[in-house]
Design goal:
There is one protein chain. This protein is an alpha/beta fold. The chain folds into two domains: 1-34; 36-252, Zn-dependent exopeptidases (Aminopeptidase). Helices cover 43% and strands 13% of the residues. It contains eight helices and six strands, in the order ααβαβαββαβαβαα. A six-stranded mixed beta sheet has the order 2-1-3-6-4-5, with helices on both faces. Helix 5 (146-163) crosses helix 8 (207-226). The longest helix has 20 residues, at 207-226. Bound molecules: zinc ion (ZN). Zinc ion (ZN) is lined by residues 45-46, 52, 61, 125.
Length: 253
C-alpha cells in the first residue's frame, strides 16, 4: 500500500511538472490512479407508435424493453457507472409529423449514441417467432467488431447462467442491423427472450424476471468494465472499436 501511494505521488509530481491539467488526468488515468468515468448507453428498443413485437398475452415489446432498461440503469448507476438512455418515456425519437418515423427514430438513436461516446451500448429487445416452441435469450454484435463479440459473449454467458442454464444459444454476429452498422463504439443487441413463447412471455412480463435480466446484464457490464483498460482513441464506424475490454473467460474463447 505504502509503495502504491509512493508511486502515485511520484507519478503525480512528474505529471504536474511536465504536463497540462488534461494531460495530468490522462497520465493518472493510465496509471490507474484515478477512477475512469465509464459511460454506458442503454437503448430500450421501439417506443410510442412503434410497439415492437406483441406477446402471446398481448403485451408490447416496447414496454418490456423500457422496464428492463430502467432496472439496468438503476443497477449501473448504483455501481457509479454513468448511464445515457436513448429514451425514458413511451415515445419514438422523431418529430410527430415525420413522414418516415421509423427511419428518423433509428437515425436519432444512433446520433444520440455517437454523441454520448460510450464504452459500449446495450440495446434491449424481445424476440418473436412463428413457432411458439422457440425460446431463449440471445445477444447480437457486429460481425466485424472484436469488442462487440467480447461484450456479447460476456452478456450471453451471464444471461444463460442467471436465466436459463438450458439455453444453448450463443452470441451471434450480424452485419445488417442498422444500430450495429451505424454506431461508432461497440453496440450489442440483447434479445431477452421470445414473446411468441407462452412460458417465456409470462416470465418476461413479471417484475421479478425483468429484474433478473437487468441484473445479469449489469453483472456483465461490471465484469467488462472492471477488467477493461481504457477507451481507444481511434473510432471506426465500419468496424466498431471503442474499448479494450476483456471478459473473465476470454482466454477460453
Ligand atoms: Zn425489437
Amino acid at each position: 500500500m505504502k509503495k502504491a501511494v509512493g508511486l502515485g505521488c511520484f507519478i503525480l509530481a512528474i505529471a504536474l511538472l511536465l504536463f497540462s491539467n488534461e494531460q495530468v488526468k490522462q497520465v493518472l488515468s493510465e496509471a490507474n490512479l484515478i477512477k475512469q468515468d465509464y459511460v454506458i448507453v442503454i437503448d430500450p428498443g421501439h417506443g410510442g407508435e412503434d410497439s415492437g413485437k406483441v406477446s402471446v398475452n398481448n403485451t408490447y415489446e416496447k414496454d418490456i424493453n423500457l422496464q428492463i432498461a430502467n432496472r439496468l440503469k438503476k443497477y449501473l448507476e448504483s455501481s457509479d457507472v454513468k448511464v445515457v438512455m436513448t429514451r425514458e418515456e413511451d415515445k419514438m425519437l422523431c418529430d410527430a409529423g415525420s413522414l418516415h418515423k421509423k427511419a428518423e427514430d433509428m437515425r436519432n438513436r444512433c446520433s444520440l449514441i455517437n454523441k454520448a461516446k460510450p464504452e459500449f451500448t446495450v440495446s434491449i429487445h424481445q424476440n418473436s417467432y412463428t413457432s411458439g416452441e422457440i425460446s431463449g435469450a440471445q445477444v447480437f454484435y457486429h460481425t466485424q467488431s472484436k469488442e462487440g463479440k467480447i461484450i456479447a459473449d460476456c452478456i450471453q454467458k451471464h444471461l444463460v447462467s442467471y436465466l436459463d442454464k438450458e439455453n444453448k444459444r450463443v452470441a451471434k454476429g450480424n452485419e445488417s442491423y442498422y444500430l450495429l452498422k451505424n454506431t461508432e463504439n461497440p453496440t450489442v443487441i440483447v434479445e431477452c427472450g421470445f414473446l411468441s413463447n407462452k412460458e417465456e412471455a409470462d416470465k418476461l412480463e413479471t417484475e421479478a424476471y425483468q429484474d433478473r435480466v437487468a441484473w445479469a446484464i449489469h453483472m456483465s457490464v461490471m465484469e467488462l468494465l472492471s477488467s477493461g483498460t481504457k477507451k481507444s482513441e481511434q473510432v471506426n464506424v465500419t468496424v466498431q472499436s471503442g474499448l479494450r475490454i476483456y471478459c473473465a473467460d476470454r482466454a477460453k474463447m
